[in-house]
Amino acid sequence: MTKDVVALTKKMPDPLSVIAGLLSGGPDLLVGAEAEGALVRLHDEQGRPLLSVEAPLLVQVRGEAERLLGASEPEVPYWWTEARATTGVKEAEALAATFVGRIATLVGGTAWPRGVATSIGVVNTEGMTAVPVPAAAQPAVDVLTDKVAVVIQDRPVVAMTSWLADTFRAAAEGELGLQIVTPAGTRLSPAVRGALPGWPSRWVVQDEKCGYYDGLSGAILQWANGLFVTLESPDATDEDPRTPLAETFAQGAADTGERQLAVSFRCVHPADDRLVLGGAVESVWREITGEPPAGWGTEEPANLPWSLRQLTDVAFERSPEPTWVVVVGSPERPGLATVRITRTTAGVEEDVTLAFGYGAAEEPPTEAVQRAAEALATRHDLQSMLVQVRRARRDLSVPPHFEGPGVPYAFVLGAEEVRAMPGDRARRTPLRDTPRELGPRTRPALYYPFPGDASDLSGWQDFERLMRHLKGS
Q: What is the CA radius of gyration of the chain?
């Protein structure tokens, strides 16, 4: 039975419904509230947590339940109420299932996973004991060592939920790695993939052939000294580690013809009280898809309709601390972006990583890339931009097998960066094609096209030559 359960309801769970859900273990369990009431927990008699329940989230963006859970969702808006059972306690898992079953029954809605709420009767918790959790102020942490926090996730897509986001922050503050353990069929949201820091953090995939492997590199792993580490080959040397690779990862999946258009860029805006953020993302979205983003949020599921003003207000309220948000498109045109907004000495920076998905019968609209670049260069203080075409899933999720790298399609250097380079270095490049000017002729940005497609890796050689040239090396 899964550790995470979700109730999807048209009405907000009222206090009586929540109380009825929390009584799924009978009246003897203890209830506690944390995070100013945003998190409710059921404890055993020793005060150890059994079940953690997040405050209901109003989702106003179509398609998020299908994207993250593979579940049919009510018509928007609807309420998303998530609960997490303590790992390794059978009764806790039954408590979670009964909790969402009662919420869905009393308020009207469905429970995920499908069929999880087989009973809404009282769960027998007599004699039940929960494992002590040293710093389990973080509900998502299943194992905590002096090196890493380990999170076990059994869901179709590991998303940047509020409690996983809290775990990312807690691990960073504690100078710990974060290791996410999943079964073989699970994928990562691009938001989680992009946020996962380097070693010792990693995505650990259970595999029936080799035990465990790294879902991003394919390296076979083993648990040693309080964390998952790479299995060393007996023939390894310092010069040639000969890391064994999981057969499941290396085989990957057949090329289905699906593609992604991946765009990453940075804009640096002068600090101004009248500054409106998010306009750069919207401009690229409109040029590529013909419509604005559908929604955004500070976690997944993205629950708010797209609004430049609301996004700006959140960023200003959090300043000088950075703000991270996720932006999503409609189900008809999969698109997802993560935006990190930071106040620096240079101004207000927006770092954006974004991708759009296309099926085998669809062509990524690469002709729109130059228009998007010009919009950024002329209206949104573009510093730099890289566009790639990748062989990857249309739904944008990250599978635990090899997909291959993207191929550079274009690079753009902002007007200020062009002006800062000595002489004509930015215009006289080792590339086959001459860079194109974008924006005003007196202060142009430069657009560098790369010939090739998703099967031509020579584009990376051209990109590396261009970077060395621009750096003067």
A: 24
